[in-house]
Amino acid sequence: MTQEQTDLTIANPKMSARDVKVFYGPKQAIKGVSIDVDMDHVTAFIGPSGCGKSTFLRTLNRMNDTVASARVEGEITLDGENIYAPTMDVVQLRARVGMVFQKPNPFPKSIYENIAYGPRIHGLAAGKADMDVIVEKSLRRAGLWDEVKDRLNDSGTALSGGQQQRLCIGRAIAVEPEVILMDEPCSALDPIATAKIEELIHELRGRYGIVIVTHNMQQAARVSQRTAFFHLGELVEYGVTSDIFTNPRQERTKDYITGRYG
Amino acid sequence: MTAQRLPTDWKSDAMRKRIARRYGAERRFKLAGLAAVALSAAFLAFLLFTMMGNGLRGFTRTEIALTVDFPASPLLLDPNAITDEALANANLPMVTGEVAKKALGGDADALLSPTAWISIRDAIKADPKILSRTETIRVPASTAIDLAAKSKGSPEAEAEVARLKQQGVLSTGINWNFLTASDGTDPTQVGIWGAFKGSLLTMLVTLLLSFPVGVATALYLEEYAPKAWWTDIIEVSINNLAAVPSIIFGLLGLSIFLNFLHLPRSAALIGGMTLALMTMPVIVIAGRNAIKAVPPSIRDAALGIGASPVQVVFQHVLPLALPGILTGTIIGMARALGETAPLLMIGMRAFIATPPGGITDPATVLPVQIFLWSDEVSKGFVEKTSAAIIVLLVFLLAMNGLAIYLRNKFETRW
Ligand SMILES: Nc1ncnc2c1ncn2[C@@H]1O[C@H](COP(=O)(O)OP(=O)(O)O)[C@@H](O)[C@H]1O
Ligand SMILES: [Mg+2]
Description:
The structure holds 2 protein chains of 2 kinds. Chain A is α/β, with parallel strands linked by helices. Chain A has one domain (6-257): Rossmann fold (3-Layer(aba) Sandwich). Chain A contains 10 helices and 10 strands. Chain A has helices spanning 53-59, 90-96, 111-121, 128-141, 145-148, 161-173, 191-204, 217-223, 241-246, 251-257; strands spanning 15-24, 27-37, 42-46, 70-78, 81-82, 97-100, 179-183, 209-213, 226-231, 234-240. In chain A, β1 and β2 (27-37) form a beta hairpin. In chain A, α3 (111-121) crosses α4 (128-141), α4 packs across α6 and α6 (161-173) packs parallel to α7 (191-204). The longest helix of chain A has 14 residues, at 128-141. Chain B has 2 domains: 57-175, no CATH class; 193-410, MetI-like fold. In chain B, α9 (193-224) runs antiparallel to α14 and α9 (193-224) packs across α16. The longest helix of chain B has 46 residues, at 13-58. Chains A and B meet through α2, β6, α3 and α6 of A and α13 and α14 of B. Bound molecules: adenosine-5'-diphosphate and magnesium ion (MG). Magnesium ion (MG) binds next to α1 of chain A.
C-alpha cells in the first residue's frame, strides 16, 4: 500500500475504517482501505466506474449484508464501537447511518408517509401531532417543505426526480441519523436539481457526517472538504479536497483528475 | 469488379420490388393474425350460442294452468288449521292427479310433473281461503310435455301439447326451482343450488388452505431461503407440481385423506384439500414472480432507514406484490373450480339430493354435476346440463371480474 498522505487522522472520528477489505465471493473489490469520517467535513469518494466506491460506502452502514456473496474484513467503528461486532444491531446502525441512493427511490406512498415511515418504525414520534412536527422539520431541512406543504397526501412518486431525491434525503433525516451516506445522489438529475442538492449538502454539513460518492469531479470540488480517490479497489489518495484537485501527490490521481482515464 | 461504387439508386426497379415485397409481407402477416383471431372468435361464439340456445331453456319451464274446484275435490283440509303436518297428511299428490284427470282429460300423470302437487300445496299455504272456491293454479308440466312444448318431443307428447294449447292452458314460466333445488331423478325437479353450494364450500376450503400456505412459501423462497441445492430442488418440484395432471392429485387425496386419515368421504373438506394441493403451486409461482417484480430499490430504501427484514417484507414487498399474487390466486382458483377428475376420485360423484350444510357433509360441485347430468339418459337433462354450464361460466366470469377489480384496486401507480 503506497498511501502517502497528509495526516488526516482525527482524534475522535465519528466513523473510522481500518484496513477494510471486501470480497465478492473470491473476487476482492476493496483492498485494505483506512479512512476517518467526521461531522465537520463532507467527504467525497471519487474514482472511475467499478473502482469500489459504492462497495466501500455500503460497508459503512452494512448494506453489504444484503449481498449474499459479500464478505467484509477489517474494522469499522461508529463512535468507537465496531459496527461488525455481533453485539451491534444492524437495524439501529442503519437508522444512525442513513443512506441516499443513486436512483431516487421514494416509497409508492404519500409524501407524508415517506417521511413518517422511519420515525414510526423506530418509535420516535409521540403521537400524531409530534409526527406532524417531525415531518415538517425533516421536509424543511431537505429544502422541500415549501414545494410540497399543500400536497402532503400526494404520492411521493408523483414528484419530479430532483424533488424525489430531496424527499429521500428528508426520509433519511427524519430518523435523526448521525451520518448520511450518499451514493451518486445527483447522477439521475438535471443541473438545476443537482444544484439544489449540493446547496442542501452545504446546509446539512456540521449537523450530520456526510459521505458522498460522485463520478463528477467538479461536484466533489464544490461540496466536499475531504476527497478520497479510489482506483481498482485501493484508496490511492485521501486528502483535503483543494489539495487533491490542485496538487495531487499520486500519479494516478493526477491522471484521473486531468481526465486521462476514467 | 469496379473499384468505384455507384451512389445508391433509391428509385431503381430492384428497390421498388423490395419495397413491394416488404409491404406484401406486412399485409400477409396482418391477414394471418386476423384469421387467427376470427377463428377463435368463431369458436367462442359457437360455444356461447349453443350453450345459450340449450341452456337458457333450462331456466324456464312449461306450466299448465290447472283449474281446481277445491270444495268438490276429495281434499280434506280445514282452512283454519293449515299446518305443514296437515298438508303432509292430506295426500296432495293423489288429489292432484285426480283433479288433473278431471280438468285436462287424458293421461294426467303423463302431463304433469311429479312435483306438480308442490305448487298446489304452496298455493294453499299462501292463501288458505282458496280452499272454499275454484282456483286456477299453474303447475309444472312433465318432462315429455316440457320438451315437446319447448322444441321437439315424441309424437304422442306433441299431440298432447297441441291439445293443451287448444285448451289455452299452456304457458312458460321461470323455473325458480332450478336455482333453489338440488339433484334429483326427474329433470323437471332438479336444481343447481346443491352443486353451487358444494362448489362454494369447496372453493372456500381451497382458498383458506392454499392462499396462506402458497404466499408464505413464495415469501420464504424469495426472501429468506439461501441459494443452495435444496432450494433448487424445491423450486423444480414446485414447478413440476403445477404441471402434474389433476387426476394424480385425486389419487393422492384418495390415499391420504380418505384411506389414511379417514376424513369424511364425498365432503367439501376433502375436495377443497385436494384442490388446494393443486392450486398451491400456482399461487407459489405467481407469488414468486410478483415478489421478484418488486423493484430492489424499494427494499434498499426501507433497509436504508433501518427497517428490519420482516418489516421490509410485510410493509413494502407484500403490499406491492399483492395484485400479482391475487391475480395468480384467482387464476388458480378458477382452474380448481372447473376441475372434475380429482373430485371423482374422492367420491364427490355421488347422487346427493340435499344441499350440504357444512364442509363435512356429502356434497357435489358444479363441474361434477354437469358431468353427471350429461351422462343421464332422459332427454330432459340435456337443457339442464347446458343450464348448469351457464351457471358455472357465470361463476367463473364473476371470479375473473373480481380478479380484475382487485388488481386495479391494489395496483401501485408509480
Ligand atoms: N453484488 C456484487 N456482486 C459481485 N461483484 C460486485 C457486486 N457489486 C459490485 N461488484 C464488483 O465490485 C467492484 C466495485 O463495484 P462498485 O463498488 O459498484 O464500484 P463503483 O461504485 O465505484 O462504480 C466492481 O468490479 C463490481 O463489478
Ligand atoms: Mg457505484
